[in-house]
Every structure is written in structure tokens, then in C-alpha cells.
Write a structure and sequence with these properties.
Elements: E1 4-5, E2 11-19, E3 24-35, E4 43-52, E5 64-67, E6 73-78, H1 82-97, H2 125-132, H3 136-149
Parallel strand pairs: 1-4
Antiparallel strand pairs: 2-3, 2-6, 3-4, 4-5
Length: 151
């Protein structure tokens, strides 16, 4: 019998709120997979690697795995499409039938994109704010959510 995912697998970049004895706050999903808690049963649960918001994966911040039931609230759901469904189908197939041989990931020697400079003479406060922090809109949303939750 084929393995079945219990629940939905969120997209990468999803923002979740965790409230446990160990951690509290917003976290971003940086990787995902599935976990089979009981080998006698055919159901698996979503598993995520999360990093603290707004830092993401940074050398001075800890990333850690969680199961879907640890999520207190989904603040923002990341983008998904048909490729995500194919990823999940392949993941479940490998969990049931064993891993397949894969090629090592390609390593990039330099930047994949050039970051343009701000033209001289442009003094737009909004542009400057986004240049300093490209996630400013998401941070403001998170701050609003935090203020709304406080007593």
C-alpha cells in the first residue's frame, strides 16, 4: 500500500509561529520532507527545517527540524505548484521503496546574479529602506501580528 501524507506540505518560505517551552516566535521554512512515525502504518507527517525570522539560515542563528503538529499558526504560506506535488510523490516513493542514487549538487563559484547599484541622485526613502532590508514588508506584517497577539 502507498504511503499517504497526513495533512498538506507547505511551500518553502512559509512563515510559521511556534510556541513551545524551547522556542517562541516566527520561523521560516527553509526545507521540508516527511516523517514516518510508525513503520507499521502507511501514514507520514510533514516535517520542516525552520530558521528564525527575520534571519533565515545565518551563521549565528540555529535552524532545527519540526513536525507539522508543532506549528501553532501559519502566518504566511509559501508558493507551491506542480513541481511541489512531484517532489512529494518522489519523496513518498523513496520512503517506501528506498533511496535512489543521485548526483552531487552543482557548486557555484560566484554570484548567480549581479546586484545593481542605486543610481546617483536617487534619494527615495522607500527605495533606500527596501535596499537596506528587502523583507521590510514581511517584517511589518510580522510586527502587526505580534502586536495583535499581545494582551
Amino acid at each position: 500500500m502507498a504511503l499517504k501524507l497526513r495533512g498538506e506540505l507547505m511551500g518553502l518560505g512559509s512563515i510559521v509561529r511556534l510556541e513551545t517551552a524551547e522556542v517562541s516566535g516566527l520561523f521560516v521554512v527553509v526545507a521540508r520532507g516527511a516523517f514516518r512515525p510508525d513503520t507499521e502504518r502507511d501514514d507520514v507527517v510533514p516535517r520542516y527545517l525552520v530558521a528564525p525570522h527575520p534571519y533565515g539560515e545565518a551563521p549565528d542563528q540555529e535552524t532545527f527540524p519540526i513536525l507539522a503538529d508543532a506549528i501553532e499558526e501559519v502566518v504566511f504560506e509559501g508558493y507551491t505548484n506542480a513541481a511541489d506535488a512531484a517532489f512529494l510523490d518522489d519523496l513518498l516513493d523513496q520512503m517506501q521503496n528506498g533511496r535512489r542514487a543521485t548526483k552531487p549538487a552543482r557548486r557555484f563559484a560566484g554570484a548567480l546574479t549581479a546586484i545593481p547599484e542605486t543610481p546617483d541622485g536617487v534619494n527615495n526613502d522607500a527605495t533606500a529602506e527596501v535596499a537596506r532590508d528587502p523583507f521590510i514588508a514581511l517584517r511589518r506584517l510580522a510586527d502587526q501580528e505580534d502586536r495583535r497577539k499581545r494582551p
